[in-house]
C-alpha cells in the first residue's frame, strides 16, 4: 500500500467522531470487501487496527460496543478470511458475552454454514463449550479433515474425544450410514471420502500429530494388526519368503495377548495348516486352550512340551538349496562382530575412520506394518574388506545416555558421512538416513553434510539388462529378484537371500540367520563396487565407471562451486582409473513432464497436487486393490507413491527405487515437496497447470 494512501486513511480516521462505527458502515455498504486478496477494505481495516494501538482512547465499551459487536458478528461469516483477525481485534470480540457468541455460531451451524461456524469457533476459542462430534461430523463429510485438525489442535481433551469418536465409527459392527443419514442434503458432500479406510488413516495421522497413546483407539489398532496378520500369513504360506523363526517373532509381537486377534490367528492357522500344525503354532503363540476348536485342543494335549515347532507346510524346500542358490559371504564367520559396548565400538571406529577406506553401509529396523511413527534403526552395518561390524544402535545409544555422553555415537557417524576421504557405499541411502534421523535427532542434518558417498541405487538405471522380468525368466518358479538382490545377481552371479528382510530387528539376541543376512547386505556393496570398477564396459557403464556411479548422488548439492576431482579407491585398495566427480554432485534435475507416477488410493490429494505441477499422474480408485498399483507401474514404467502397510507389499513387487512411501501425517503440499525433492524433479512456471486437471 502506498505511503500516500496510508496517510489519507489515517487522516480520515482522525476526522471521524466514531472510527469503529465508521469502518463498519463502510464495510457494510462496500462491494469491494467481499473480494479476495488485499482489497481496499482490507487496507483500511488493518490501518485502523494499527491506528488504534497508537490511540488507546479510541476503543469503546458498554452498550455502544455491544451493538457494534452484534453488527460485526453478522458480517464475519461472509467476509474474506484475512479480515477475521483484524475485525475480532478491533471490536474486542474476545470480551463479548460467551453465550451470545456461542448462540451466533450455533445459528451459523443450523443454517448449514459448518465451515464458517468452525472457523469462527477457532478464532474465538469457543471449542471447549461445544460438542466436538457435532461440530466435526459435517466437516468430515465435506472432506475438510484439515479444518477438523485445526479445530481440536490446542485442546488435548477434545483431541481425545474426537479420536474416540472416530475409533467408534471404525468398529466393524457400527453402521456408518447412521452418521451420514442426517446430512444427505449437505452441499459439497463427499460420501466416497467417508469410509472406514479413510477414517482409519485420519486416526493414525491424528495419533501421530498429537502424540496420543494409540491404546485410545482399539478398533483402528486391531484392524491394522489384523491386516498385518493377514500379510504375514501371505508372506509365509503363499509367497513363502519368510523363515519360520522370523514369522513366529512377528506373529507373537502382533497378536500378543489380544483375545480378538488370537481368535483370528486360530482361524488363519486352520485355513493354512492341518490340525496338528495349527495346534503346534497355537502353543508357540500362547493361544489360550479355551479359544481353540475341540479338534485343535485335543491335538494340543498330545504334544510334548519339548517338541520343537515343525514346518507347517511341505512346500518350504527352498531352504535346502539356499547355499548354492544365493550370494554367500566370502569372509569367515568370526570376522563378523556384533557390537554392544562402547569399548568394542571404539575399536571399530579406529579401523573404519581411515583415509582411503571404502565402507559398505546398511541399516535394519523392525517393520512398522503401517503403525504410528517412523521406523527407528535397530542395527547399523559397516563392512570393510576383511570384516563386518554390526552396531546394536539402541543399546549403544542407551549406554551413552546413561553415561551422560549421548553425543558420542552421533559424532562418529557424522564424521564417517562427512569425510570425503572415505568412500561410503549404500543402496537407497536417503531412506536409511531418514530412519537414522528418527532414531537420533542429532543426526537429522547428516544428509546435507555428507561427502564421498556412492549410492548404488543409481546403477539400477545404468547397468545393462537389469529388470525383474529378465531375472524371472532365468530363475523359473521362484519370485523374480528385485532391487539390490537383482543388482547382486546381475553383477556377482547370485541374488541375495531376502528371507530375513522383514525380521524383528529389535529382538535380542539376534538369530544367526539375521546376523548373516545383515552382514551380507552391507558386504555385497563392496564386491559390486569393485567388480564395476574393474570391468565397467561389461555392464554398459562406459570406460569411466566412477563418473557414472559417483556422479549421480541422491542428495542436494552442498554449494554452488567447482568441486575438486579425486581418485576413487576400490575395496582392494587399488585405484580405479580415470578421474571422478566429487560424490556430493547432485543428479541432473528432471522436468515434471518426464516423471510418471501411480498414486495409491489413500493419496488422491497428493496425486491431484502433483498433476497441478505438471507431473504425469494416475490415481487408483477407492475400490481398487493396492496391488493394481504394481501392475500399472510395471506396464507403464511408473513410480508407485504409497504409504503405510501397502508399501511393504508393493516395494517387493517393483523393487527399491520404484516405490516411495509418503508420510501420511503431512498435508498434500508437504507430501508433494517430499516426492519432488526425493526424485529431483524441478518445476518451472510453464509446468504449472500444463496438464488437464
- How large, in whole angstroms, is the Cα Rg? 31 Å
Largest sheet: 6 strands, mixed
CATH class of the domain at 337-465 and 483-549: Alpha Beta
How does CATH name the architecture of the domain at 337-465 and 483-549? 2-Layer Sandwich
Identify the overall geometry.
globular
Helix content: 40-55%
Query: Structural class, please?
Result: alpha/beta
End-to-end span in angstroms? 35 Å
Main sheet: which strands, in order across?
1-4-3-2-5-6
- The fraction of residues in strands falls at 5-15%
GO biological process, one term: nucleobase-containing compound metabolic process
Pfam families: DNA_pol_A_exo1 (PF01612), Mut7-C (PF01927)
GO molecular function: 3'-5' exonuclease activity; nucleic acid binding
Region (Disordered): 543-587
Task: Give me a quick take on this structure.
The chain has 693 residues and is an alpha/beta fold. Helix 10 (156-169) runs antiparallel to helix 12 (196-210). The longest helix has 23 residues, at 512-534.
How is this fold's topology laid out?
Elements: H1 3-15, H2 19-29, H3 40-54, H4 62-76, H5 81-90, H6 98-110, H7 114-124, H8 132-141, H9 145-152, H10 156-169, H11 177-180, H12 196-210, H13 218-238, H14 244-255, H15 259-272, H16 275-284, H17 294-302, H18 322-325, E1 336-339, H19 342-352, E2 358-365, E3 377-383, E4 388-391, H20 393-402, H21 408-418, E5 423-426, H22 429-439, H23 446-449, E6 453-455, H24 468-475, H25 483-492, H26 512-534, H27 545-550, E7 596-599, H28 604-612, E8 616-619, H29 627-636, E9 639-642, H30 645-654, E10 659-661, H31 668-678
Parallel strand pairs: 1-4, 2-5, 5-6, 7-8, 7-9, 9-10
Antiparallel strand pairs: 2-3, 3-4
Helix pairs in contact: 1-3, 2-3, 2-4, 3-5, 6-7, 7-8, 7-9, 8-9, 10-12, 13-14, 13-15, 15-16, 16-17, 25-26, 28-31, 29-30
Amino acid at each position: 500500500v502506498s505511503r500516500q494512501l496510508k496517510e489519507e486513511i489515517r487522516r480520515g480516521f482522525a476526522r471521524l467522531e466514531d472510527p469503529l462505527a465508521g469502518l463498519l458502515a463502510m464495510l457494510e455498504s462496500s462491494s469491494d470487501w467481499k473480494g479476495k486478496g488485499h482489497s481496499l477494505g482490507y487496507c483500511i481495516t488493518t490501518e485502523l487496527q494499527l491506528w488504534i494501538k497508537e490511540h488507546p482512547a479510541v476503543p469503546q465499551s458498554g452498550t455502544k460496543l455491544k451493538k457494534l459487536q452484534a453488527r460485526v458478528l453478522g458480517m464475519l461469516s461472509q467476509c474474506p478470511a484475512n479480515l477475521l483477525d483484524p475485525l475480532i481485534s478491533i471490536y474486542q470480540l474476545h470480551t463479548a458475552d460467551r453465550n451470545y457468541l456461542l448462540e451466533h455460531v450455533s445459528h451459523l451451524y443450523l443454517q448449514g454454514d459448518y465451515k464458517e461456524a468452525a472457523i469462527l469457533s477457532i478464532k474465538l476459542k469457543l471449542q471447549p463449550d461445544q460438542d466436538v462430534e457435532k461440530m466435526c461430523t459435517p466437516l468430515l463429510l465435506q472432506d475438510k479433515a484439515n479444518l477438523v485438525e485445526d479445530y481440536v489442535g490446542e485442546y488435548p481433551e477434545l483431541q481425545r474425544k474426537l479420536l474416540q469418536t472416530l475409533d467408534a465409527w471404525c468398529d466393524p459392527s457400527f453402521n456408518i450410514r447412521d452418521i451420514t443419514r442426517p446430512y444427505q442434503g449437505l452441499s459439497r458432500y463427499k460420501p466416497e471420502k467417508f469410509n472406514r479406510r479413510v477414517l482409519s488413516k485420519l486416526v493414525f495421522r491424528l495419533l501421530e500429530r498429537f502424540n496420543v497413546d494409540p491404546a485410545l483407539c482399539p478398533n483402528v489398532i486391531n484392524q491394522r494388526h489384523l491386516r498385518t496378520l493377514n500379510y504375514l500369513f501371505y508372506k509365509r504360506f503363499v509367497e513363502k519368503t519368510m523363515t519360520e523363526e522370523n514369522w513366529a517373532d512377528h506373529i507373537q509381537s502382533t497378536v500378543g495377548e489380544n483375545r480378538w486377534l488370537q481368535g483370528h490367528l486360530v482361524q488363519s492357522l486352520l485355513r493354512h495348516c492341518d490340525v496338528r500344525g495349527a495346534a503346534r503354532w497355537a502353543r508357540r503363540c500362547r493361544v489360550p486352550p479355551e479359544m481353540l476348536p475341540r479338534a485343535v485342543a485335543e491335538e494340543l494335549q498330545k504334544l510334548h512340551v519339548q517338541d520343537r515347532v515343525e514346518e507347517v507346510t511341505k512346500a518350504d524346500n527352498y531352504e535346502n538349496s539356499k547355499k548354492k542358490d544365493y550370494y554367500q559371504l566370502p569372509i569367515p564367520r568370526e570376522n563378523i562382530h556384533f557390537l554392544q559396548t562402547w569399548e568394542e565400538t571404539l575399536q571399530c571406529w579406529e579401523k573404519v575412520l581411515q583415509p582411503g577406506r571404502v565402507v559398505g553401509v546398511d541399516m535394519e529396523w523392525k517393520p512398522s506394518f503401517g503403525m504410528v511413527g517412523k521406523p527407528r534403526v535397530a542395527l547399523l552395518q559397516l563392512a570393510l574388506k576383511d570384516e563386518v561390524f554390526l552396531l546394536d544402535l539402541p543399546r549403544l545409544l542407551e549406554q551413552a545416555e546413561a553415561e551422560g555422553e549421548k553425543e558420542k555415537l552421533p559424532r562418529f557417524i557424522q564424521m564417517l558421512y562427512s569425510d570425503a576421504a572415505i568412500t561410503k557405499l549404500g543402496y537407497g541411502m536417503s531412506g536409511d538416513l531418514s530412519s537414522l534421523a528418527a532414531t537420533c535427532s542429532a543426526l537429522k542434518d547428516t544428509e546435507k553434510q555428507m561427502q564421498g558417498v556412492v549410492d548404488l541405487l543409481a546403477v539400477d538405471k545404468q547397468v545393462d539388462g537389469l529388470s525383474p522380468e529378465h531375472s524371472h525368466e532365468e530363475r523359473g518358479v521362484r519370485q523374480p529378484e528385485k532391487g539390490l538382490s537383482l543388482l547382486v545377481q546381475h553383477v556377482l552371479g547370485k541374488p541375495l537371500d531376502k528371507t530375513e528382510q522383514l525380521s524383528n530387528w529389535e529382538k535380542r539376541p539376534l538369530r544367526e540367520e539375521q546376523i548373516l543376512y545383515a552382514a551380507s547386505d552391507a558386504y555385497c556393496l563392496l564386491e559390486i563396487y569393485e567388480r564395476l570398477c574393474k570391468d565397467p564396459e561389461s555392464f554398459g557403464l562406459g570406460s569411466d565407471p566412477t563418473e557414472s556411479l559417483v556422479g549421480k548422488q541422491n542428495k542436494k548439492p552442498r554449494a554452488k562451486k567447482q568441486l575438486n576431482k579425486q581418485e576413487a579407491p576400490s575395496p582392494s585398495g587399488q585405484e580405479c582409473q580415470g578421474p571422478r566427480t566429487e560424490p556430493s554432485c547432485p543428479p541432473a534435475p528432471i522436468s515434471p513432464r518426464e516423471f510418471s507416477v501411480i498414486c495409491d488410493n489413500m493419496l488422491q490429494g497428493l496425486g491431484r497436487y502433483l498433476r497441478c505441477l505438471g507431473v504425469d499422474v494416475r490415481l487408483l480408485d477407492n475400490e481398487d486393490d493396492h496391488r493394481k498399483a504394481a501392475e500399472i507401474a510395471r506396464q507403464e514404467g511408473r513410480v508407485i507413491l504409497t504409504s503405510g502397510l501397502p508399501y511393504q507389499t508393493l516395494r517387493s513387487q517393483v523393487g527399491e527405487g520404484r516405490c516411495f512411501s509418503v508420510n501420511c501425517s503431512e498435508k498434500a503440499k508437504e507430501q508433494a515437496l517430499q516426492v519432488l525433492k526425493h526424485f529431483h524433479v524441478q518445476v518451472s512456471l510453464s509446468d504449472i497447470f500444463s496438464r488437464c486437471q
